[in-house]
Every structure is written in structure tokens, then in C-alpha cells.
Amino acid sequence: MNKVAIVYYSSTGTGRSVAEAVAVGARSAGAEVRVRLVPETAPEAAIDSNPKWRAFVDSVKDEPRATLEDLVWADAIVFGTPTRFGNVSSQLKSFMDSTGGLWSRGKLANKVYAGFTSAMNPHGGQEATLLCLYTTIYHYGGFIVTPGYTDPSVFAAGGNPYGVSVTTGQDGRGPTDADRAHAEYLGRRVAETAAKLGGH
Ligand SMILES: Cc1cc2nc3c(=O)[nH]c(=O)nc-3n(C[C@H](O)[C@H](O)[C@H](O)COP(=O)(O)O)c2cc1C
Known about the structure:
By secondary structure, the chain is of the alpha/beta class. 44% of the residues lie in helices and 16% in strands.
């Protein structure tokens, strides 16, 4: 059975919904899946400045957090992050920046990788965020699996071929059914590709 780790950061829950949809897709392809938030690094005062952020942090406080062992365990890793000024969130980047030891021993190479993000605006930097995220994967020596235009769900969700992306709008709405279908497709595609490669 192939092993898929979904390692993500979310401040208000959008990314969590996407992570769960990716997991549904990966499991449908027979994968064993771990879904893990990375640790929060923002100061309490910043979290308290946004009631939605505070509520989300409180709601997930008892969940296991991503560890380096999750990355070693997985054949495929899907990273998720909200868009932050067109870039990867510092919380996910901080976790990725803790992987130098694994990287230097080749422990992150030859795995399958993919990404998802969300942003408030339709053109708020979703694609730029995914491309920034993938730069680290190039250094890992990973195999990046994108949706491309290989399934109708990509078009239905707005046509992002780089990875899954959600537009929350100013009211912070979560993923649409079309976004979830896109995310499930990506999870399935990642798990199927990992199976073809036969594990790391
Ligand atoms: C510091 C900061 C920077 C952000 N930068 C962008 C941005 O560049 N473009 C955009 O459309 N939305 C931006 N947003 C909105 C986030 O992308 C939005 O909060 C995110 O999609 C919510 O995902 P989550 O619920 O998983 O945390 C920003 C939000 C914050 C707090």
C-alpha cells in the first residue's frame, strides 16, 4: 500500500477542507494517508487579532502535528499553504526549512510531491504560491505531480494546472464542490503515480 502524507498549514480552515478532500482522493486509490498540520509559529497576539484564526487554532489544538518522520514515512507528500503575499506561508516554510538534515541524506528525494493553496482573490497569487512551493521540491529531488489539464475537474474548478487552489473571497468561504472534486482528483493522481513508481 502506498503512503501519502498531506502536510499543510491553515490559519482559518480553508486549507484543512482541501487537505481532507485530497485525502479522500488518495484513499480512493488505495493509499494509506496521514493528514498533518504543521506547527503554528505566529505570536498569540497575532492569532487573537483575528477571531476566525483564534477559533481555528483552538479547534485543532489536540491534533497531532507534522513531524519529520511523516516525511520519511511517505512515498508521496502533498504540501498545502494559504497564499501569503503570493508566497508560501512562513509556518509551512519554517517546517520545510527544518528538513535540511533529511535532504542532506537524500531522504526526501525520489518521492512524489504536489501542492495546494488558497487565496482571497481570484488572481491573488495562487499560481505564484504553488511555483514558490515547488522550488523547494526541486531541491529535494522530488517528482512533482501536477493536475495539468488531465481531468474535467480541473476545468470545473477554474483551470489551475499547477495544483489545487481555492478562492475564498472577502467572506472567507471554503472550497466549492468543484474545488473539492479537483482536490480529490489530485489526491488520486498522486497516489496512483506513487503506486506506479513502486515506493521510494
Ligand atoms: C499576511 C497575509 C497575506 C495574504 N496574502 C494574500 C495574497 O497575496 N493574495 C490573496 O488573494 N490573499 C491573501 N491573503 C488571504 C489568504 O490567502 C487567506 O486568508 C487564505 O486563503 C485562508 O486560508 P486558510 O483558511 O487555510 O488559512 C493573505 C492573508 C494574510 C493574513
